[in-house]
Amino acid sequence: MNKDMAISLVVLAAGMGSRYGGLKQMDPMGPHGETVLDYSLFDAIRAGFDKVIFVIRKDFEDAFRREIGARLEGKIEVCYAFQDLKDLPTPHLCPEGREKPWGTAHAIHAAREEIKEAFAVINADDFYGAHSYEIAAKYLRSLQSETKCAMVAFELEKTLSLHGGVNRGVTTSQNGILTGVEEMIGIHKNSAGVITGNDSQGRPQTLNSTDLVSMNFWAFHPQFLSLVESSFLAFLDEHGKELKSESYLPAVVDEAIKQEKLHCEVLTCHSQWFGVTYPADKNHVVGAIQALIENGDYPATLFA
């Protein structure tokens, strides 16, 4: 592992709004008002990430810099990229009336000027746990081939909600290499302890607690950007006049795997994933974070 090799964390945060108080992404979860994103950044810094790139919208830049970026000063290099509906490769133009974002692949496109080194990608509102950043950082520091990437995968049971069904990308792999991801909806554990969900055709499926699922935590070589650009351009050629279609990062990876342009390693994470899918999930997340603090996994106050 090359400890001198710089690595970056790209945080997909353009879905946040300027009125933080009503958004789950900025809802206080820690004992001193810490958010899920605060814990992600803390974990990334102690795992050795050198730079964080926030993909945000220009309309809340000032508030984001003040409430998020400022507290990271002196701890990690901070950069910003702006996801703009009109930021499209030539010759495409944003169709009149389009308000919906172009998707997570477009978010990576938005960060193209800031990504100079191997990088991981996360959602801003998911609690992935310290182990996920450790294994991602280790992988990135040893990554030399532009044809390789990795997905940090979680055991299904560690991503369920106690309060309703969830949608997850259930993976298949061979010898630790990703072979496919199937979207399953309405996954829940019934009173008998059996986990079930419906496949893309609406057919009920029984799932295993140890099935590995994708939570949109990826690790890429910087040359992956060329695949994003070509895939996003092809997407626009087909869907660029539409008002709601989106280009998703997992679809870029899946397409590259099928074309044998990319080999994606599955990195199994043993951390408990947390997220607020339903309002009632918040109390569970708050309690789980408090338990981690009491166990010594996190200080009571982050970035003190």
How many β-strand runs? 11
CATH topology: Spore Coat Polysaccharide Biosynthesis Protein SpsA, Chain A
Q: What's the SSE pattern? A: EHEHEHEHEEEEEEHHEH
The largest pleated sheet is described as: 11 strands, mixed
Structural class: alpha/beta
Mean pLDDT: 91
| CATH class (first level) name | Alpha Beta
How is this structure best described in words?
By secondary structure, the chain is an alpha/beta fold. The protein has one domain (7-294): Alpha-Beta Complex (Spore Coat Polysaccharide Biosynthesis Protein SpsA, Chain A), CATH 3.90.550. Helix content is 26%, strand content 26%. It has seven helices and eleven strands. It has helices at residues 36-47, 61-67, 104-110, 130-142, 224-239, 249-258, 281-294; strands spanning 7-12, 51-56, 77-82, 118-123, 148-155, 166-174, 177-189, 195-198, 204-207, 212-220, 263-269. Strands 1, 2, 3, 4, 5, 6, 7, 8, 9, 10 and 11 form an eleven-stranded mixed beta sheet that branches. A hairpin with a 5-residue loop joins strand 7 (177-189) and strand 8 (195-198). Helix 1 crosses helix 4. The protein starts with 6 loop residues before the first strand and ends in a 10-residue tail after the last helix. Mean pLDDT is 91; it is low at 17-22.
